[in-house]
Each structure stands twice: as C-alpha cells, then as structure tokens.
Design goal:
By secondary structure, the protein is mainly α. It has three helices and no strands.
Amino acid sequence: MAEKKDLRRLTAEDLTEELRAAREELLDLRMQLATRQLKDVRAIPRVRRRIARAMTIAREREIEKSA
C-alpha cells in the first residue's frame, strides 16, 4: 500500500498501523541484508519511501488540525 492516494484514505489509526508495519518490514529487510538472505535489494528504498510518505501525510494532518 505505497500509493499516496491509498494512504490519504486511511484514518489516523490505520495510518499509524501502516507506519508501524512498514517500520517492522524495514527492520526485517535490514536483518535479511545483514545475513545475506535478501533477494531484492531495492525493497529497502521502497519501504523507506513508504515510511516517508506515511510520516508526511501524518504531519500534514497534524498541521491542518492546529491551523
């Protein structure tokens, strides 16, 4: 679920859950990389971008609430 449109449709709780899941996935990928089990090395940047998108949307919502 890396599409920005899909992330924007999520509620705050779902967005938090998506962010937690993405961070967990990134940890797993890093472990696989460290143990040389990672097949798709491009997965790490994709997950990092997914995390950044979710954090950006969360921050935008936070700013909207305070404005």
